[in-house]
Amino acid sequence: MSISLHTVAEDVWNFMKNPRLEHLSPYFKANPAEIFPYLLLLDFMMMIPLSGFLGILGIEDMDHKVENLYSQPWMLAIQAVLLAPILEEAVFRLPMKYSYVRIFTACCLVLSMLLTFIHSERTVGLIAIAFFLIVALFHFIDQRNDNQLNAQIAPLWETYFYIPFWILTLCFALLHLTNFGGQFPLYLAPFLVLPQFVLGAMLGYIRTGFGFVFAVLFHALHNGVLVGMALMAQSALPST
Predict the structure, then answer these.
(1) Which burial class, exposed, middle or buried, applies to 64 when counting CB atoms under 10 A from its CB (0-12, 13-18, 19+)?
(2) Which domain holds residue 206?
(3) CB atoms within 10 A of CB 172
(4) Whole-number pLDDT of residue 77
């Protein structure tokens, strides 16, 4: 079986039309080093026109958190290429393959991230208590049913995988609305996070096909290229 941009794009498109956990051919799965360059090329073939579209909408004139880190390139690189890929993949892609532990891990990370956005410790505390009560209740019911509840959820998760897949992908995209510090019209929200929605779907394809580590690696490569381009463009601007 030959690997080309066309065959990779076709495989990604077929997955998007019907997201499922088992979707890669054995040959694709055994050759990630050959697939990755095409996936990265496909990624930026979509990102470039999307960026141009957002430029037409005037997105470049809006406040963005990344701009505040241009004067600290090492901090920007650490956040974008190391921290963000690991944390975001752990929250939004790790639980795509159902497991009690994976979902619990992702939820714990979400609770810790809430501390960044919710400044009320009481609110965060109540959310944490509610979460752990739900986990305790689930565990209690599962134990009462001889651990059958968890076993019953797994096949349902696989059958209706497209539901958690698109929910997690959408949540990943919406998280990036927090990057825009200023006020913006609500109708712009879907356009602001459209690149992240497309990236999230691509990362879901990689996570379910190749595994969690490969999704983190691809996310880091994607962010690294963008950060590198942004820093080079910034350094090319005349100093004032």
Answers:
(1) middle
(2) 71-232
(3) 22
(4) 79
Per residue in 150-170, pLDDT (tens digit) is: 778 889 999 999 999 999 999
CA distance 225 to 80: 10
Mind giving me the DSSP string for 5-74? HHHHHHHHHHHHHS--SS-S-HHHHH-HHHHHHHHHHHHHHHHHHHHHHHHHTTGGGS--GGGGGTT-HH
Q: Can you tell me the distance from the alpha carbon of 155 to that of 157, in angstroms, rounded to the nearest whole number?
A: 5
Q: Where are the alpha helices (DSSP H) in 73-193?
A: 73-77, 84-92, 100-117, 121-144, 148-159, 162-175, 189-192
Question: For residue 171, what are its two tokens?
Answer: 């949540």
In whole angstroms, what is the distance from residue 88 CA to residue 96 CA? 13
Neighbours of 88 (CB within 10 A): 23
Report the domain count for the chain. Answer: 1
CA distance 126 to 144: 27
Side chain identity at residue 120, one-letter code: S
147 within domain boundaries: yes
Residue 172 lies in a domain: yes
pTM above 0.85, yes or no: yes
103 found inside a domain: yes
